[in-house]
Amino acid sequence: MENKEKVKNLIDLRLQAKLGGGEKRIASQHAKGKLTARERIDMLLDEGSFEELDMFVTHRCYNFGLEKEKYLGDGVVTGHGTIDGRTVYVFAQDFTVFGGSLSETMALKICKVMDMAMKMGCPVIGINDSGGARIQEGVTSLAGYAEIFERNILASGVVPQISAIFGPCAGGAVYSPALTDFVMMTEENSYMFVTGPKVVKSVTGEDISTEDLGGADVHAGKSGVSHFKVENEEEGLMLIRKLLSYLPQNNLEEAPIFDTSDPIDRLEDSLNEIIPDNPNTPYDMKTVIHTIVDEGEFLEVHRNYARNIIVGFARFNGVSTGIVANQPNFLAGVLDCDASRKAARFVRFCDAFNIPILTLVDVPGFLPGSGQEYAGIITHGAKLMFAYGEATVPKVTITLRKSYGGAHDVMSCKQLRGDFNYAWPTAEIAVMGASGAIEVLEGRTISSMNDPEEKAKFIAEKVADYNEKFANPYMAASYGYIDDVIEPRNTRFRVIRAFQALQTKKVVNPLKKHCNIPL
Ligand code: HXC
Fold first, then answer.
1. Where are the alpha helices (DSSP H) in 246-332?
2. What per-residue string of b and e applies to 110-143 under the rule 16 or more CB within 10 Å gives b?
3. Burial letters for 182-220: b for 16+ Cβ neighbours within 10 Å, e otherwise?
4. Protein residue with least CA distance to atom 47, ligand 1
5. Spatial distance between the Cα atoms of 431 and 364, rounded to a whole number of angstroms
């Protein structure tokens, strides 16, 4: 072959590789409302930045006549590119090649980009759209999965890992996304489950659709497996870009700082009136968040799961900050198993990646009852406590209203190494709410009273007494557990000042192999 022909041959091979499983299968992918692996990568990355690797890799399986059917690149597109100018490593499973099913060589391709990402200290983004283990390959495919899992585990806490589920993700294949930091699912076409509806039916007799078993609503709302639910792939890919803007490239770096025209001393009078006079009346904590952060921009994580707690990213004076906030608007902001797990995972992510944490507290306590006890609220609550107590990033806590009992301790209190703990004058910091406390303390006297009027008067007096003593932040402030009582409208300024003062914070936990968080 002449050199000229060699070049033409290369161009032809590249064109062939770019067609994946062929035009018919690409058309079928589009007909399902899905993009191809390459289209997804192009949309995700900065224009023209993608450099593909291993385009000429093919599978090496000889079972069931598979050697006669080979596609350049096999069932995954891998490489690197940039997002807002920062390097990321990507892999996108190509459903047009054997349904994106994982072969030995596909696993090698994925592992290669994961290893590169670790070496270079860059995020890894995986786009999943696959029929699972390549059936014809048997155990080499299973081994390939395990190679990926091990890398997911070692990369955890070193580089951010993000998984987008844009198609099937079933069987053991679900565990790679589950090991990553963030999982995203599209409303249609995506599902995740350990066993599909047919197996479920044959084993348990339960009749359930794919959607109801492992669709985006299930995982973003009920199980919490998915952190984000998006309407379509484009929205998902743009969300990944946005999410990365809040994150550093790796655990040794800081998140990028953005210019902002939002004044740091912006006063928000509305906050002085946001807490209702009746302590049982809810308000929307998201209003508080949007009001105090830069330009009102908040990227919420796990929006549909455990809505009694809010977690997500925002910026204060351009600095990326993780926010954890009780939501009085949902279940009164109580801490239950799901809320504890959700917040604990978020706190640990922030701590692993040097993102300071702001905690906004309005929590009536842990949710009582057998349901929660049987579900292990003790262990789950301990996770959140552990996560806060272990975290060494700057931690600022603001108590807006209730902060009762164990939940007070858990929500980044001073003794869990909260750096600056402020309270609004509306804060109530106590072992429990007034009526519960009076019932315990005065139960015998109350039950001995026969006259309902006298009883009501007695309780009202005792409640008023208790509130006078505890339904305020000053008792806690008198012990130094609250560093300052601040005017609500000045919250943004005080938070920014606090984080500025914490910029040089250095705390090192005792040396150990690893902790034993109550999983
Ligand atoms: C090999 C596969 C495949 C697989 C799909 N294909 N899954 N080839 N191994 N696992 C091929 C099909 O033969 C077909 O080839 C093409 O991909 C597209 O598949 P279709 O069935 O036509 O597509 P669709 O109707 O959209 O259905 C998609 C699907 C279905 C729901 C994913 O293909 C399916 O149920 N596949 C099997 C899923 C499964 O049970 N996987 C194993 C899970 S257990 P042609 O040539 O016709 O285009 C597992 C263990 C992992 O993964 C353990 C890790 C620890």
1. 285-292
2. bbbbbebbbeeebbbbbbbbbbbbbebbeebbbe
3. bbbbbbebbbbbeebbeebeeeeeeeeeeeebbbbebbb
4. 98
5. 10
The rounded distance, in Å, linking the Cα atoms of 87 and 45 is 9
Catalytic residue among 407, 423, 427, 476: 407
Rounded to the nearest whole angstrom, what is the distance from the C-alpha of residue 295 to the centroid of ligand 1? Answer: 46
106/386 Cα distance (integer angstroms) = 38
Is residue 289 within 8 Å of 323, Cβ to Cβ? yes
Find the helix or strand (DSSP H, E) in which 496 lies: helix 491-501
Q: Judge contact between 131 and 98, C-beta under 8 A.
A: yes
- For ligand 1, the distance from its centroid to the CA atom of residue 75, given in whole angstroms, is 12
Place of tokens 């707690």: 309
Q: Where are the alpha helices (DSSP H) in 205-303?
A: 210-214, 216-217, 233-245, 285-292
Q: What is the pLDDT of residues 316-331, one digit of tens each?
A: 999 999 999 999 999 9
Structure tokens belonging to residue 250:
């790796």
Side-chain-side CA neighbours of 351 within 13 Å: the count stands at 20
Q: State yes or no: pLDDT of 148 exceeds 90.
A: yes
Residue 484 backbone phi and psi in degrees, to 5 = -165, 150
DSSP 313-342: EEEETTEEEEEEEE-TTTGGG-B-HHHHHH
**Whether pLDDT at 469 is above 90:** no
Of 101, 198, 210, the residue with max ligand 1 atoms within 8 A of its CB, to mutate for a pocket test, comes to 101
d(CA 135, CA 142): 10
- The residue annotated as part of the active site, out of 172, 221, 318, 376, is 172
Beta strands in 31-158 (DSSP E): 51-53, 76-83, 86-93, 124-128
CA–CA separation, 129 and 108 (whole Å): 17
- CA–CA gap between residue 274 and residue 181 (Å, rounded): 34
The model's confidence at residue 24, banded by pLDDT at 50, 70 and 90, is very high
101 CA distance to ligand 1 middle (Å): 6
Q: How far is the CA of 240 from the centre of ligand 1 (A)?
A: 27
Task: Identify whether the C-beta of residue 272 lies closer than 8 Å to the C-beta of residue 425.
Answer: no
**Which ligand 1 atom sits closest to the C-alpha of 69?**
46
Cα–Cα distance measured from residue 479 to residue 474, given in angstroms and rounded to the nearest whole number = 9
The DSSP output letter for 3 is H
For ligand 1, whether the C-beta of 149 sits within 6 Å is no
Mean pLDDT of 248-257: 98
